[in-house]
Amino acid sequence: MLASGGGSNLAALLAAHDDAAYGARVVGVVSDKPGAGVLELARRAGVPSVVVAPGDFADRAAWNRGLGEAVAVFQPDHVVLAGFMRILAPTFLEQFPGRVVNTHPALLPAFPGAHGVRDALAYGVRVTGCTVHVVDDGVDTGPIIAQTAVPVLDGDDEETLHERIKVAERSLLVETVGRIAREGLRVEGRQAVVGP
Ligand code: GRF
């Protein structure tokens, strides 16, 4: 799992993976941020983690190569991004074709990018939500796997709305990652299909 934030999505996956029937296991955590909350979560769960910080590399291309090497060490079946706020280069995605999945706190294709919650609130939508999708070369543009709608309530600010979205997002991510681990993931054009 690639993550850089507080790690509520990682925490939900770590809780789920303790159940042998779940089917998925978090085999490693990679963050671009030294000291990110996700690293402490991984340590407490006994999951190996590594920091691959852009500042440690000559340029973005070298960082992407370093990231790919660090992730490959864990030999993951799938790579899950949650709050990993960096754009992955095609060279990284080519190492794990059709196997990189991201969660985004909006109903894509609406409100892609780093401020999906803020943008939805500013637009005045009455319903937003979260999306689990396959990562492609664009920003939040890959084939959609699953979505959950979340209401915007009067008086919401970015924080209250994002927290409400995160409750749905954690459930959707745990459910979707478990299905992918048990059944597999296939990408056919714009369609991402969970299943053999
Ligand atoms: C999630 O809402 C994710 O969709 C967004 O950043 C947030 C990360 O939250 N990209 P956490 O670090 O998993 O709590």
Task: Write up this protein.
This protein is α/β, with parallel strands linked by helices and 196 residues long. A five-stranded mixed beta sheet has the order 1-4-5-6-7. A two-stranded parallel ribbon has the order 2-3. The protein has helices at 8-17, 37-45, 60-73, 90-95, 116-123, 158-183; strands spanning 2-3, 29-31, 49-51, 79-82, 100-104, 127-134, 144-151, 185-188, 191-194. α1 (8-17) runs parallel beside α6. The two termini are 23 Å apart. It has six helices and nine strands. Bound molecules: 5-O-phosphono-beta-D-ribofuranosylamine. 5-O-phosphono-beta-D-ribofuranosylamine is lined by residues 3, 5-9, 82-83, 103-105, 166, 169. The active site is at 104 (proton donor). Catalyzes the transfer of a formyl group from 10-formyltetrahydrofolate to 5-phospho-ribosyl-glycinamide (GAR), producing 5-phospho-ribosyl-N-formylglycinamide (FGAR) and tetrahydrofolate. This is Phosphoribosylglycinamide formyltransferase. The record marks 140 as: Raises pKa of active site His.
